[in-house]
Amino acid sequence: MNGALKVGAYALVLAVVFGGALGAGRMAGPTGDAEAQSSQGPGAERGEGSEHGVHQHATAAKAPAVPAGLQVSQDGYMLMPETDEVKVGERTDFRFTVIGPDGSPVTGFTTQHDKKLHLIVVRRDLTGFQHLHPTLLGGGVWSVPLKLPAAGEYRAFADFAPEGAAPLTLGMDLSVAGDYRPEPLAVPAETATVGDYTVTLKGDLIPGRTSMLTLSVAKDGEPVTDLEPYLAAYGHLVALRDGDLAYLHVHPDGEPGDGRTTPGPNITFYAEVPSAGTYGLYLDFKHGGTVRTAAFTAATSPDPEGGGASSGDGHGHSHQP
Questions:
Q1: Does residue 46 have a pLDDT over 60?
Q2: What pTM, to 2 d.p., does this model score?
Q3: Per the CB 3.0–4.6 Å rule, which of 50, 53, 87, 249 could disulfide with 28?
Q4: Cα torsion at 96, 319, 175, 84 (round to 10°)?
Q5: CA distance 109 to 171
Q6: Dihedral sign of CA atoms 44, 45, 51, 55 in order
């Protein structure tokens, strides 16, 4: 995608359900599954109050939900950054607050995968991916050291669950002034290289169907069989849709210590993407005491039963931040 198209895509908000992880995989951060509400009142389901009540209620119930991460406010919760500008190359004490339905800062959060809040930051061209874990200060203020090495427009995703409420993923834009030169998507490949490690991606993303993705980790050509638990799993996979950055965070099949999941080399995920398109995939894994991120892009494949449209060959390819 050229720079002009990429910049133009920033304004798009596609109202297509991005989907959740199915099967044994589990999704962290919902896809905004609250349905549109009918305005017909208590009798709407029975068609009372309007001669078109039944039809109007059915139409509202079928309205697609907004994918996770596209909204700064949802279900009464709102993301409030202290600043939305970061200077290029400078480490910033980035602070933000989650405002609750009562208008007050949220101070109670449920721990999910060892953390009360996960902050994902990525540039709009799918580069510069960071998975951060802010510290909760007094008064509901979150703080995290943030360094963005290149100019451009970024999206920050706060993935959290308020105490007593369903998990949410809210998103906000960050601007880094300077000479912005968006990177094109890399050419298709099945592997990504991170230092001495090579990660191989197998599997097809088929819109509307559960997809099994297997990522295999090797070091210096040898399979890694002693991956270390990171945030209560052997791997974390984030998917972002190119064009609007709809967000999906999928956890792997199985977990450390369950008696059946081996610590590598394979990490298996189950996910569903109902819309055709191109996605950035980011695998976090830990080995030798260090967390590394393997970055791919993947295009959806056609449904083998004839139910989907293709926009690519379905294989992952490396796209290093």
A1: no
A2: 0.76
A3: 249
A4: 0
A5: 17
A6: positive
